[in-house]
Amino acid sequence: MVQSRRRGGNYRCPRRAALPAAALLLFLLAAVSLLYVSPPPVSDHPVLASSRRRRSAHALLNSSGGDSMEQPGRSEISRVPMNGSAVRDELWGSKLSSKFYGCSNSSSKFLDSNSTTQPDRYLMIVTSGGLNQQRTGIVDAVVAARILNATLVVPKLDQASFWKDSSNFSEIFDMDWFISSLSKDVKIVKQLPEIGGKLRAPHRMRVPRKCTERCYLNRVLPALLKKHVIRLTKFDYRLANRLQTDLQKLRCRVNYHALRFTAPIQEMGEKLIQRMRERSKYFIALHLRFEPDMLAFSGCYYGGGEEERRELGAIRKRWKGLHPNPEKGRRQGRCPLTPEEVGLMLRALGYSKDIHIYVASGEIYGGAKTLAPLKAIFPNLHTKETISSKEELAPFSKYSSRMAALDFIVCDGSDAFVANNNGNMAKILAGRRRYFGHKRTIRPNAKRLYPLFLNKGNMSWDAFSSKVHMFQKGFMGEPKELRPGRGEFHENPSTCICERTDGKAKSENDQVLDSSSDRGKAISEPAVPNYSGEELGESDDEDAPAEKEVVDAEMDEDALVGPEDPELEQILSD
């Protein structure tokens, strides 16, 4: 076919000249298109990759205060509402809470200490760990003294452990109130008196973990009758979970009524609560537990690359018995949630952007950068350092237990308490908040939430929120959430929680120790079982190591700790 020519000159097709221009145009178009393609996530838990974390948090949220922000194409949840749900009563408490109340009065069969205490029996104990681990030891020491019909010498606090706190009992707790309030239950003295005109050296021994009443009578009483003064060392969790009802109620009287902080600590703690209330009618207390030691102990990986592995690995070398498996630990729910994950969980539950949160924590791994995603979701974050002056904190700042006591008071007084691990502070506060009216207490169901966070990019916000609500059922501090006898007694004091039978609501003053006010029935727990010789700790060697104990499925950290590994146990104290 003959190609026609245009008039006015010879014409050639510019095929060769067009090829470079077209290639250049295609290259420019490809480069521009890449600008609109989001990079893939660098890890499943990118908390410590600060640049991506800030992009992620701010991309998820509309900081101008709008309802939500679309993020098509990103590997994140597509819509995160800023305001959560409207403030509803269920966010701050249970509708069923008025039907239950704390009841720790003794029965008529529980004799006065003047009738039971033997004059030549003295029990001394040395606590172990941080503030809250020591608290469990103090509570159980009172009960152990009652079992032995002995006079209890005011417990000696652990001053040489990981926490390096030199405080004694009277510098943290109101010692005079402790002695007087329990005077009808157990005789308590400030120091060991002379016996027969001379001061006797105590006989040192250690009892097994979860030692039962019979264990104390078989193991400790013979030595006490012979030596007259016994000193039990490393006294933490040395008493069985299940005891006779009157002994369980004695535990509650000690824990919830007799153990008060000193006036300076209590007054400062109440100031912190007041300052939180000035900022918001309701506030959340979050025990974040994202310190380097906790992350190292958990054995989990949070996406910080070689720097994280090196830093946490160096801390982890302290514990020879620790053999972490990051992926397995995460699947089993043993890893603390990241700050961003905590924020997403709370928003999904319905807490809005304007809620004020008190963060109870030590040194956060990664500092402000690690908190950035949480602050993007909840801008109103506070700590005791941000709402008080250095001068106000000066009497407490050099003592880890006193600083922990301030956090304890604020967490106890909060409208909603969130525990990001299941250590001693979380357990004690959970039990205390159940006893005093089932105040809202949230424990992340990390085992179920973990795969949800991994797949959050594949669902809408509504679907994500619905899943969070479903997975958190049974982890919100509702009455009867844990069956009686489940877990540690300090976490689930079911014997000391009564249910109303007359249909009337219970006031806050009904926890007072007045048996005439108890007009309900206690939540029953399984009968005290018959223990085997091994469970009773029967052994010829008084200082034999504790037997391997059965671990509750919910006691996440305990499953990783050897029975007598002190440093591993101390790390869980707070």
UniProtKB/TrEMBL annotation:
Q: Where is the composition biased (Basic and acidic residues)?
A: 500-509
Outline the segment boundaries, as ranges, of region: Disordered. 61-80, 500-574
Q: Where is the signal peptide?
A: 1-34
User: Protein transport among the record's keywords?
Assistant: no
Q: Please name one Pfam family that this protein belongs to.
A: O-FucT
One Gene Ontology term of the biological-process aspect is: fucose metabolic process
Single GO MF annotation: glycosyltransferase activity
Any stretches that span the bilayer, and where are they? none
Q: Keywords, A to Z?
A: Carbohydrate metabolism, Fucose metabolism, Glycosyltransferase, Signal, Transferase
Point to the regions of Acidic residues compositional bias: 535-544, 552-568
Q: Please verify whether the record's keywords include Metal-binding.
A: no
Family membership: Belongs to the glycosyltransferase GT106 family.
Q: What is this protein called?
A: O-fucosyltransferase family protein
| Species of the source | Digitaria exilis
Q: What is the lineage of its organism?
A: Eukaryota, Viridiplantae, Streptophyta, Embryophyta, Tracheophyta
